[in-house]
Amino acid sequence: MTTADILEAWNAHLSQSRRRSPHTVRAYAATAARLLHTLPAPQSWESLARLDAGTLRTHLAERRADGLGNVSAARELSALKTFIAFAREQSGDHDGNGDLGRPRLRGPRVKKGLPRPITPDEAVNLAETVADDASQPWIAARDRAVLLLLYGAGMRIAEALALPASVLPLGETIMITGKGGRQRVLPLLPIVRAGVEDYIRQCPWPLAKDHPLFRGAKGGPLAQGMVQRAVARARTYLGLPATATPHALRHSFATHLLSAGADLRSLQELLGHASLSSTQIYTKVDAAILLDVYRNAHPRA
Fold first, then answer.
1. 160-176 pLDDT tens trace
2. pLDDT number for residue 102
3. Which residues of 115-127 are buried (b: 16+ CB within 10 A; e: fewer)?
4. CATH 1.10.443.10 region(s) of the chain?
5. pLDDT digits (tens, 9 = 90+) for 227-266
6. Domain made up of 3-101: CATH architecture
């Protein structure tokens, strides 16, 4: 059996049996391919089924040496465990060590501290992991689109879920109604528009103008609790703190913009704050991040 045969079977399992999104299939296939290319040939389902925690630990150590961060390493470990569980099923061995035949290996620890915004890498990984965990491809696309709106446009979760289908087709900006009935115009990044349009293409429910844009599994409006629970599961997989909530994505949007040079008045407009004092909290957050970097990097700190 060749590496190409193994990857073809793995891709088919993910896309057909597990009904994962094309993005997830690509990511999981790339993770498996990296592992396979480090192993001696020839390979078989039986040899893959016998891989242990030590082999995975060595492989991940090499990936970390190449610059892989904690959150990405946790995500890659999860994909590798799933791949090996599949190999054991294919080999007929259902008695491997660990849950569901997966090797016992903990993901990297994420340092705990004061609540703070998550990094851009963590925000993207959170959205992708929520999508990976979804039960159907269209639900994966929906959840990813919602989280992209929170991080990419700074929406509150209530604002995103209140969007009517009449906002379609999307342009470079979108007008939303926030707290107190205040309206504001938000720019939409290409990746955000693409995420929402991917959901629209897959949504099985008709999106009439007077209906909500984001729909639940049974066709009704998508509830906040569904998104919050999906994010809670994903942050556990990734080893993120409990502060990594849907609202933290909006918080991160603001902090990262401020770090990139946005002025407070512009940020106030984007966030829909009635008072500038509500926006000024992000100057303290940004200062805290800079101080943390200084303490960790400066030789005389």
1. 999 999 998 888 888 88
2. 47
3. ebbbeeebbbbbb
4. 120-290
5. 999 999 988 888 888 888 888 888 788 776 766 666 667 7
6. Orthogonal Bundle (1.10)
Q: How is domain 120-290 classified at the CATH fold level?
A: hpI Integrase; Chain A (1.10.443)
Cross-strand pairs, 173 = 187
Question: What's the CA gap between 253 and 267, in Å, rounded?
Answer: 10
> At residue 181, does pLDDT exceed 80?
no
Write the DSSP string, 214-277. Answer: SB-TTSSBPPHHHHHHHHHHHHHHHT--TT-SHHHHHHHHHHHHHHTT--HHHHHHHHT-SSHH
Average pLDDT over residues 148-166: 89
Cis peptide before 169 (omega within 30 of 0): yes
Q: Does residue 32 contact residue 79 with C-beta atoms inside 8 Å?
A: yes
As beta bridge partners, residue 221 has: 215
Active site residues: 156, 179, 247, 250, 273, 282
Residues of the chain with CATH 1.10.150: 3-101
Burial of residue 104 (number of CB atoms within 10 Å: 0-12, 13-18, 19+): exposed
Helix 224-238 to helix 137-153 angle (10° resolution) is 90
49, amino acid identity: A
Could you report the per-residue pLDDT of 263-297, keeping only the tens digit for each? 667 767 767 666 666 666 666 655 555 556 556 65
Q: What is the distance between the alpha carbons of residues 201 and 138, in angstroms, rounded to a whole number? A: 8
User: Closest by alpha carbon to 161, among 223, 251, 253, 211?
Assistant: 223
Is the Cα dihedral 133, 67, 32, 74 positive or negative? negative
Find the mean pLDDT for residues 26-40: 89
- pLDDT category of residue 99 using cuts at 50, 70 and 90: very low
